[in-house]
Amino acid sequence: MPGSSFGHLFRITTFGESHGGGVGAVIDGCPPGLTLSTDDIQPELDRRKPGQSEITTPRKEQDTIQILSGVFEGRTTGTPILLLAHNKDARPGDYDVLRTLYRPSHADFTYELKYGFRDWRGSGRASARETLARVAAGAVAKKILRERAGTEILSWVETVGELEASIDPATVTAEAIESNIVRCPDPAAAEKMIERIKEVQADGDSIGGILRGYVRNVPAGLGEPVFDKLPADLGKAMLSINAVKGFEIGSGFEGTRMRGSEHNDPFGLDDQGKTRPMANRAGGTLGGISTGEDLSFRVAFKPVATIGKPQQTVTREGQPTELAASGRHDPCVLPRAVPIVEAMTALTLVDHLLRFDPMRPE
Amino acid sequence: MPGSSFGHLFRITTFGESHGGGVGAVIDGCPPGLTLSTDDIQPELDRRKPGQSEITTPRKEQDTIQILSGVFEGRTTGTPILLLAHNKDARPGDYDVLRTLYRPSHADFTYELKYGFRDWRGSGRASARETLARVAAGAVAKKILRERAGTEILSWVETVGELEASIDPATVTAEAIESNIVRCPDPAAAEKMIERIKEVQADGDSIGGILRGYVRNVPAGLGEPVFDKLPADLGKAMLSINAVKGFEIGSGFEGTRMRGSEHNDPFGLDDQGKTRPMANRAGGTLGGISTGEDLSFRVAFKPVATIGKPQQTVTREGQPTELAASGRHDPCVLPRAVPIVEAMTALTLVDHLLRFDPMRPE
Amino acid sequence: MPGSSFGHLFRITTFGESHGGGVGAVIDGCPPGLTLSTDDIQPELDRRKPGQSEITTPRKEQDTIQILSGVFEGRTTGTPILLLAHNKDARPGDYDVLRTLYRPSHADFTYELKYGFRDWRGSGRASARETLARVAAGAVAKKILRERAGTEILSWVETVGELEASIDPATVTAEAIESNIVRCPDPAAAEKMIERIKEVQADGDSIGGILRGYVRNVPAGLGEPVFDKLPADLGKAMLSINAVKGFEIGSGFEGTRMRGSEHNDPFGLDDQGKTRPMANRAGGTLGGISTGEDLSFRVAFKPVATIGKPQQTVTREGQPTELAASGRHDPCVLPRAVPIVEAMTALTLVDHLLRFDPMRPE
Amino acid sequence: MPGSSFGHLFRITTFGESHGGGVGAVIDGCPPGLTLSTDDIQPELDRRKPGQSEITTPRKEQDTIQILSGVFEGRTTGTPILLLAHNKDARPGDYDVLRTLYRPSHADFTYELKYGFRDWRGSGRASARETLARVAAGAVAKKILRERAGTEILSWVETVGELEASIDPATVTAEAIESNIVRCPDPAAAEKMIERIKEVQADGDSIGGILRGYVRNVPAGLGEPVFDKLPADLGKAMLSINAVKGFEIGSGFEGTRMRGSEHNDPFGLDDQGKTRPMANRAGGTLGGISTGEDLSFRVAFKPVATIGKPQQTVTREGQPTELAASGRHDPCVLPRAVPIVEAMTALTLVDHLLRFDPMRPE
Predict the structure, then answer these.
(1) Which of A256, B292, C215, C256 has the CA that lies 20 to 30 A from A32?
(2) Residue A68 distance to chain B (closest CA, Å)
(3) Count of domains in chain A?
(4) What is the model's pTM?
């Protein structure tokens, strides 16, 4: 059964490979009447695109998005929206060596095992280029959430390797995140992170890290027990992103060390006399349903698998060999992953927003 | 849109509340011809049932499972299988106080918010009693995996609070896990954990911890990029379990501190001359597809929300108050969560096993 | 991929066989807050149950329905509703002969071919007994439609064999339909039909016929182009009923003989000055979307396959033989199919009602 | 919930409008390793394209299809396939009058009602141009069925208005169907049909008719009871095509006049000693599952709604008016619908072929 669709009521289906004709998504289920143009989408793609700074891959793609259907006179019609970006700076020749061997810790091996053969040009469908489609569709989802509920979706870099930023989530702004090329709103930590990534890059190596996802003005009531709980669908969304190895919400793994009496968020009354949790170790959901408090979660990214340093591997013919990858790769995927995490968050939330509507008690 | 189904080709739909007529599941898509009786299911339920030891809730439920359809002359017919357990030891009176207020960090608040009112008897649908249905259906999934691929699915307690076991996953046996009531195959750690849980229980408190999930003889090729990657669906499965706040596969959060050259699993040849990863920091998948290596992942459980210690909360009418919960609850959910984690693992894998079949290259 | 679920937002999954433990359905997605008891469901089941009159099978089943979950203090909670009827008057012995051969034009042959073996007791899952679950779930759907939109769903017998009733759909009442045992609101035709069915029954034979489905107060805007058009989903619903061989909406097959200038329904203004079609050859939809006019469609039922007359067939071992079926069967399925057609109509409409909500322009 | 996807394991999502950037489909779930190029698709599109003969609309579209993803070195990779045709001969000016009023019996009215506004250029998404995407995706499905099972899918015109062809389905060839512009393999009837369509066209009118669908070498065992029976999914597929008002399989409506003893297909042994039905009034399925006999069904098309003759209608502002449509339309949709019916048949069958695989008894 195919796996290139995400969401049920706001459903995207993505397509495309690193070096084929292009990449993109069909959105089916976008509510009608939303004003929409490429201006709503392009800025998000520019945050994701390669070559944007000295710490990302030098591959140059303009990633220019087109809207081919579903919009009429500047508004969505309620019919499928095709978002398409043609591939331009494809250099399959860079990947010739990958025809014949498997990169360690890369999808080369499993794609060939699963499908019988693989598009070896720039990782084919397993390329991070596929996430362009997610960011494009996510920009539409973000706009709906912003317009309907004032929802603000943020993500930032919290660690790179063992370097940790010190950040107060409550006060982080989008501007602070975008103020440096590593997208960490702690300027001192950001500086160290950038330096570290450059070292790693010079070394022909790569490095991992952790992103925070943070959402303000989350509509309450989102999440469908018992399987489609909001943290479950959010976790799935994150774990579907290339290189992600972990997800935690609220207190997460750290919270396992606590007792119930320490961990529970007592209910109280806020300034308006409204019943609310007085702390948010829960991270914004209870019983799998959003409380209306800020969503807070963390996403673990492993170091990029493709590195310049020599590594042991085996050819398709079963000969042990050594690989020192050329090609153009990111030393650290985190800065470019920020808009991807935001997009997947938006896609998860907008789908649950539409899923909630028909259930609303009358 | 409803959320009580899991899986696509082996699809379960669960139903039931803590104090209604019963709980259970319909399995639709179970392959025909499988020998099946309640003897395949009951032992798993007995591992999950309340009152099984001095460190679990004293609620007594026999959790006797019936198969009402889909089996004929001892074999599955390919038609839906209804698994049903009637509720017996329901004491809604124990929960009277919950009619009028919200337990801190519990689903009471969000269920009422989402659905307009709630079944307050024993948490209703949000009760961990719902997981009985998962374990019952998971027993069927386990049997298919065992028969078709020799797959062995294990789970064990790795931490309770800050107590950590020392375990070599490669050699753990089901017997070692079941040899103590906390289900931790490190006997020395198990003893300390049991002691700690008793302390917490005596204190009217609760405590969290981490489970390991571990699978041997995983069929290679499972997982459907780009959204239905195996770790994504496995993560969703785990994050849909009550009290789970985090999931990581392979190196997980720890791996974010490493460089690519340290983290990558080099390919080599095994004793049979077969190409395989020579390490398994990946945790058994690459590019979202199983490699055939053991699956290894961890699941973080927060401390149980319902505790005897007094806590601040608010009534439905908006009056601040204090709650010291009576009722019968687990001080630590981990020992009983072991079969649940195994069941959700089995349900995820069997669905992907069936999803892979039609894609198999000819 | 399993096929025992119907609907997306109001989703039912049915289970059960003719002679197993029972039959029923899980409803997932029923909106919370609906008052519901077995009194809402039992009367519909009584219209479907065997043995209700001299022209139906003499099998006696009380078909007593239980609600095991999803209802609390008389109202739906928004969680899955289990509807269950235990089997009582099962006489598998009646079917012994069917162990070894295939009834002509019956599912015996294909179930064995597809699943490798079959539950031969009373047709197993292929039995019309499965439709009990549809009628039970349909009663819930009907209630939602009635309460939310005043929708009235009717069905009646329009032909039996070549006997045709003369009926004005606009004025038919539920009472008129229920006023005779064949459920045809043309009393003169009904009398002839009953006589004909008795003849056929005496002859050890069976006979087919056509039902009309007719719906008043249909919410406008239902149907999701381009594939989930309302007539498409309604047609699928009808064609999923045992013995159905055809479906037509509005002018149907007859309309193919007309010219556009004759067939088109001109728009005009009604008494309230509202724009409406001035005729309804369309049958209540345009472009796959309900117009708000009455839905009108017809469903063709073949004669029941199981008959007493001797027929040629072949045993499982490949020996030609003759079969004169005993067992208890309907000579004409039409009278009992009326509530089934109504139920499937309700299930289709309620799902589309919920599907429409989130798309509603703001 | 969106409705632009069809199929579960071989799933297509179509997009595009009559006068937007283009139309097309994403296929998700195409098995890997299939040789595929536009040469497999273009001939089918040419059978559907406008302007192909004197009895179709004069709109000129080359309908040139591109494959933008999912194919590498001439073979499918198992990843999503984007099929895209840009719109060329769009003349929105022709439709200016439609901005302000509703064509009788057309989707103009319901699209505006459902979505709040509509793309009035050439019917937007409701245009038959959308079926281009179905035919393109269907060509891929046809190829898989042909290669895996030798399946041959045919469709032909059986009636135009009251003109009926006399055809023996068992011997019809694709060549005979394509030998005349009306696609009716009875040459004498074809001549009359062409004449009739020209008359109707000259008259500014339109006319309906009936297509036969006929499939040889159908894999046995396809269809998933109880809701996703093969006739149910096939019926839905047909009823989702523009202008379709009826569907019947096998004996269909005519069979309702028969007795069981006349209608049943007795089982016997064929020349190879294989058990088979000795007649095929069933039309190729029993109990919703394919028997392996030829599939035979009929599809009723109403006369095209858009005609040149003056008709009464109402403007968006509620003013009664008269419309004599200009624009370029087909006087009879049947000849161009032949490849559409074949495509939807192929899409239904290939999805059920893949759905059956994982259920196959071992």
Answers:
(1) C215
(2) 23
(3) 1
(4) 0.97
